[in-house]
Amino acid sequence: QVTLKESGPVLVKPTETLTLTCTVSGFSLSNARMGVSWIRQPPGKALEWLAHIFSNDEKSYSTSLKSRLTISKDTSKSQVVLTMTNMDPVDTATYYCARILESWSEYYFDYWGQGTLVTVSS
Amino acid sequence: EIVMTQSPATLSVSPGERATLSCRASQSVSSNLAWYQQKPGQAPRLLIYGASTRATGIPARFSGSGSGTEFTLTISSLQSEDFAVYYCQQYNNWPLHFGGGTKVEIK
To answer: What does the DSSP assignment read for A51-91?
Structure first.
């Protein structure tokens, strides 16, 4: 059974750095075909893709947020970590991690975590 | 970057009726398009990939069509559990992008 679970702080202050962890099970991050993305959704708004780490450890980032984001993975812990610097109240959102099965360039999200709400406030 | 535009923003439909949702890409994405359903308080769920292939366990009343820049998600006969927000996502080019969503509400 494939699962993804996000964890991290519920509340961060403006200018702080957010660190979120996605712990996966039911598949291996060392598998040649498994990648993980982070996606966020402000309350009442649309989904926004943030970053992806490929099975070969290459990374891709949202153009608008690239300077603030870092994605990495620890295959031994089955974890993908996202850091976002200089947090602002507009970054308040539910943050999801989701799996991409990287076969035949089919980069859609077949499994999602439950999401974690992060509020940015002083 | 490819911009995804969904219309309408809200669609009011009676149970049992047909719903047609549109998604337009600012440039061709071939058939590299997925549709997701999201209910309140839940994560999105994959419905369609490859523009027209239903994901595992998705009922046949959901169908997708289109290629290039114009795509459609059709729900042939709306059930109560289908009232939700629907998003399209292109994966032809990086960075990935979602559309703004269509809310399907009860008329």
So the answer is: EEE-TTS-EEE-TTTGGGEEEEEETTTTEEEEEE-S--GGG
